[in-house]
Amino acid sequence: MLKDIFVTPFADMFSAPDFLLQVLWEGLVSGVLYALIALGFVLIFRSSRIFNFAQGIMVVFAALTLVGLHSFGIPAWISVVLTLGVMFVLAVSIERVVLRPLVGQPDIILFMATIGITLFLIGFGEIIFGGENKVMISEELGIPTGDTVLEPWGGLLILQHLDMTVVVVAVALVGGLLAFLNYTQMGRAIRALGDDHQAALSVGISLQTVWVLVWFIAGIIALVTGIAWGARAGVSFALEVIAYKALPVLMLGGLESITGAIIGGLLIGILEKLFEIYWGQPLLGGNTETWFAFVLALIVLLFRPQGLFGERIIERV
Amino acid sequence: MKHFTKLAIAAVVAGITAGSAIAQELYAPNLAYRTGPFAATGIPLMNGQADYLAMLNARDGGVGGVPVNAEECETGYSTEKGVECYEKTKDRSIVTQPWSTGITLQVLPKTNIDMIPILAPGYGFSPMMDGKTFQWAFNAPAGYWDAADMIIQFIEGQGDLNGKKVAFLHLDHPFGKEPLPVLEAAAEAKGFELVPIPVGLKEMQNQSAQWLQIRRERPDYVVMWGWGAMNAGAITEAVKTKFPMENMIGVWWSGHDADLAIVGDKGKGYKSISWSFPNADAPVMADIQKHVIDAGKSQTNDAEMSGVFYGRGIIISAILAEGIASAQAHFGTGEINAEQLRWGLENINMTEERINELGLNGMVAPFSTSCGNHTGHSGGWMLEWDGAKFVKVSDHLMPNVDSYAELANAKAAEYAEANAPWPVNEDCGG
């Protein structure tokens, strides 16, 4: 038994390094996608202390809007622009109709409000788009669908062009987001609100504007995530469940940290894949990905309750 | 006082009127799932079911002249909501259609007490084939063990299975685990290695780990028990990892046109065993077009109507209607109750002639049910994706029921013992 746990997995890694590379690559791609979803949560939480339960359904809604608009004969990239417009309208509506009346209410009320938004978007989306599985317009958007086959150490490594594109786009998106947050006035306003609500308001930062902005950015992230996941297995309401994969990422990385979301996502993506392939499948019958990330996050929380990159809260009385 | 008397009379009259209005229909609710992660597979099935019954109502005034009320109760494929729907509808219903193996297992013991037949065509608990033990449950025209057996027979037809490896990719859910006993028995009997690979509900759309395992195990075949988003996830991963599609075979719920449309030509060769087949030229399709689609009473569309799942929905409602008709003829009344429908479902005789008479030409194979046989074992066909649609690539296949009949009886007895006291139909000779 001890040999199966401590020796065999590593022997397998060394005996088939090409396969190990494939596992790491698949883990990296999953991790990037987890990080993207987690980023949507973090941005909203940083600026408003709201845990946005609706992030998953926003992914579905954005992807369905894009595919739906294109089905009316609108060219793909114009559909993308229009979808961004829809996500902006959604952000404004959420701020105006849901959040503004609840300013000053306890966090749990705002959290419950995002559950309400989720239920509304599920119903509204099903009425408008129907529940059928739809094909993502990958080709029309120019997303490459082929693959590159490499033979490291005489083995086999398949790199999907779609996955490579997802990684590149995600890196660009995160880079752009970090630049926006650090080097623009509005970005600094978002960070200021995250650091200290009262202080930010006292220097004239508009809560309403920032909320609309962060929900819109979360909408952009949702659209990118929806395209990436939808191109892999179609667009349907099942995409909503992938949001749950972001929960352990947030626990691990910290709810307030953009760096935490990125590193947490990558760590979980790679580690859960390694564990599943080398320990889970041979020893536990597989399907460990459903719980591994949560266990990992719980272990981290035991030692760092604020997550790996979360801010340590010190309250003096 | 006068005023009160008038009110009382009005209430009584209203009650009688309402009562007679309710009695003038056969209430056959459907525990549908048009929402949630499995909606993509649910919608065409529900549309097919609803449209067939709407057609009967419009064309014939229902079954035996009594309209069928096929009201839907939305479950989202959630077992908890399914049980709620069952409880909500059981007082008036003559049948329950649970639409999930999980819900079926939950309501199975309740139907003994409530005396409502479960109609679960092609799904549910496979030992339900033993009508003596499961007197209220029906999964005609075929069960999951039939499917597993036919798939193994088909693979065996391509060469000896001894020494081969078969991966069993399945949803980690009661539905996905259902055929395991038959597959394990077959592996032992035929000398092939069975590698079960579960897919969690949250991993349906990202099955890279499962397909890495398949790449490492190098199975000769992949048998898939997928549902909803799992199907598209698996098929796209199979294409991605360059697994030979002709060696991948799914159960009938893994043969949905929309799932394969995502990969298009790259999915050519993928197979799915099926007890139904869509036939656009069947007379029933023209009747549905005339009485339901053209009348604006349907939620379907052209693409969906030509697919496997819409056609299957039609057959499912046709089986229900045949059960009703059979009971009506036997008991000499149009307004049958649940107990009478149970008798009807036990006495379905879908011969080739009857299938054609119903306008279902080529859409289902002949089968019959009896007191002891609640599955019917119609057999089916192996369908193959040709890049745009599913086509038949086999003759009519029949399951070798004898090979697992003993297992079914043993599992049924085990279930009855675990749920004792379990009423068994002692009058049933088989």
Automatic annotation (TrEMBL), chain A:
Compartments, record wording: Cell membrane
Entry keyword Cell membrane: yes
Alphabetic keyword roster: Amino-acid transport, Cell membrane, Membrane, Transmembrane, Transmembrane helix, Transport
Molecular-function annotations in GO: transmembrane transporter activity
CDD domains with a match to the protein in the record: TM_PBP1_LivH_like (cd06582)
Topological type in the membrane: Multi-pass membrane protein
Coiled coil: none
GO cellular component: plasma membrane
Entry's transmembrane regions: 20-43, 50-70, 76-99, 108-129, 164-184, 205-229, 249-271, 283-303
Domain of life: Bacteria
One Pfam family, short name: BPD_transp_2
GO biological process terms, semicolon-separated: amino acid transport
Keyword Membrane attributed: yes
Similarity comment: Belongs to the binding-protein-dependent transport system permease family. LivHM subfamily.
PANTHER family: ABC TRANSPORTER PERMEASE PROTEIN, BRANCHED-CHAIN AMINO ACID TRANSPORT SYSTEM PERMEASE PROTEIN LIVH
Identification of the protein by name: LIV-I protein H
TrEMBL record, chain B:
Every Leucine-binding protein domain range: 31-387
Keywords: Signal
Extent of the signal sequence: 1-23
Top-level division of the source organism's lineage: Bacteria
InterPro entries the record matches: Leu-bd (IPR028081), Peripla_BP_I (IPR028082)
Family stated for the protein in its record: Belongs to the leucine-binding protein family.
Name assigned to this protein: Leucine-binding protein domain-containing protein
UniProt lineage: Bacteria, Pseudomonadati, Pseudomonadota, Alphaproteobacteria, Rhodobacterales
